[in-house]
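Need tokens for this chain, all 200 residues.
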Amino acid sequence: MTLMEVMMAVAIFTIVMGALFAITLSIGDTARVQDAKLVTNDEARRALQQLVPELRQAASLSINWTALPGQSITYQIATDLDGNGAAVDVDGALELSAARTVKRDFDDENADGITATQLVLGSGDMVRVLANNIAPENEGTDVNGVFGPTQDTNGNGRQERGFWIEARNGGLEVSIQAQGETRQGQLLSTMLTEFVAPRN
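Here are the structure tokens for all 200 residues:
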């Protein structure tokens, strides 16, 4: 073999290896994007699956309606306090649990080091994590209901609502937005919204 043939073989080998490396990176990036999408969907869905039944059991008079719309909600649910098998006492009055609050874990109540991106349900000494990877911003509209550049704090052109509850038609509209990040730093988000009508 001449030197020219060896150089040509090395060049072809280098091109083939470079192409294989690029394909491998592309497949890995695609897998990470799909993984981030799955995580955001799962987190938002898991939070709603736990929160919706809770809010359906909420006593309407115990909900902090005056603080809505907002990024936290406080309520009580009907519960059998006296052990008679029903959530009403002997006088027929509804028995209610201690106050429960759903909010971002700004105060790190469960001491796990995760704060603004974690949604928790707290009741007394009990704190239960409903979701992680909640979008950290809660952007709103102006007094005229317009979402403009002033309200778009992260400048992405979309209204971010990590956790938001609004009173609507005698019920509650719950929005949860989870987000993940790809290797290149691209943010992927999933927002799920559900209407809940308290039964009590």
